[in-house]
Amino acid sequence: MxxxxxxxxxxxxxxxxxxxxxxxxxxxxxxxxxxxxILFAGVIQQHPLLNRLTMRIQTKDVEPVDVLISNILKAIxxxxxxxxxxxxxxxxxxx
Length: 95
Description:
There is one protein chain. The longest helix is centred in the C-terminal third of the chain and has 26 residues, at 64-89. The chain is α+β, with helices and mostly antiparallel strands. Strand 1 (2-9) and strand 2 (12-18) form a beta hairpin. Helix 1 (23-33) crosses helix 2. The model has no long low-confidence stretch (mean pLDDT 93). The chain has helices at residues 23-33, 64-89, and strands at 2-9, 12-18, 38-45, 52-59. It has a single domain, classed as Gyrase A, domain 2 (2-Layer Sandwich). A four-stranded antiparallel beta sheet has the order 1-2-4-3, covered by helices on one side.
């Protein structure tokens, strides 16, 4: 995965994500939409043949990068919880 920040000004972060499918950015997008500090969050695939996504985050009164990082950490935490629950339901030991 490669991230390129196109713009980070006026409480708006615009970036390209290349060499990644929509799955992980979509999970992060979902977490962002749950955050009350967010005015707008979106992720789109430019074209099916291009391996590039565009993500835009607009915040109320905080830096978008800080909100992005905190929501990525929430997504990681939820993923770890889900992994633990799956292991329990399959009768495997949690690590």
